[in-house]
Amino acid sequence: MFSPEGPTLRELAVQALSSTERGYDLLAPKFDHTPFRTPDRVVDAVGDVLWRLGPFGTGLDVCCGTGAGTTMLRGVCRERVVGVDFSAGMLDVAREIVPKPPGAIPIDWVRADARRLPFTPKGAFDIAISLGAFGHFLPAERPGLFAGVRDALRPGGRFAFPVAAPLPPSSREFWLLRGFDAAMRVRNALWRPPFVMYYGTFRLTEVLADLRRVGFDVEAPALDALGHRPDGSPRCRLVLATRR
Fold first, then answer.
1. pLDDT of 136 higher than 60
2. Do 209 and 156 fall into the same domain?
């Protein structure tokens, strides 16, 4: 799961006993060599759909990390792209590694908490994305997070993010992630500051309801490029939320 360039077990332990923000500051230099980075095939699948829906003017990558999604977003926007993350370390890496080809539209990197997006005036963006970060938000925080993204979008603007299909309880991965979530709950009950990262709290039906509640119309088409399960259902869907 980790390449030789990834973090050591000791480094992971130190990060896990830090706050969420500090943990990602420490992880940032080796983040792209871990399984925590959204795979390129997912980024590309989302980008293909957005390319067909676009082009867009201005784009926002919420919880941009080291910029994989931001780079993709620049390919479907024509004016400006902004990457937002609360980890200064992740933004430092993004500034260093994201390509700057001649003539490319600018990318602004902004350090901010996604629950309190700082953009004024409201309605500045045509498209917002987020890839692989929602496990860092508790379910009670989602409506506020989604409302902040809504306010950053113009009326009719889109908010897009992938959601993987639930793992079957018969799979090894299902129990590994259940075990991880249980370990994180024990860690956060016994240790401060908390490190918020849960894999089992982002359920599609609940997420769609939260989006509708704060003022989005939503659809969730299959990301066919990522394949289907043996029963024919998609392995991943792309939530497309449109600001009313």
1. yes
2. yes
Which tens digit of pLDDT belongs to each residue from 24-48? 999 999 999 998 899 999 999 999 9
Domain containing residue 146? 38-166+203-243
In a domain, 176, yes or no: no
- pLDDT above 80 for 3: no
Any domain includes 149: yes
- Which whole-number Å values give the CA distances from 97 to 90, 108, 176, in the listed order? 11, 14, 32
Q: Give the whole-angstrom CA distance, residue 177 versus residue 174.
A: 5
Helix intervals (H) in 66-193: 68-74, 88-97, 142-152, 172-190
69: domain CATH number? 3.40.50.150
Q: Is the peptide bond before 193 cis (omega within 30 degrees of 0)?
A: yes
Q: Residue 212: inside a domain, yes or no?
A: yes
Q: How many CB atoms lie within 10 A of CB 160?
A: 20
What's at 200, amino acid-wise?
A: G
Say yes or no to pLDDT of 219 above 70: yes
Dihedral, CA of residue 34, residue 40, residue 41 and residue 43, to nearest 10 = 120
User: For residue 9, what pLDDT is reported?
Assistant: 84
Q: How many domains does the chain have?
A: 2
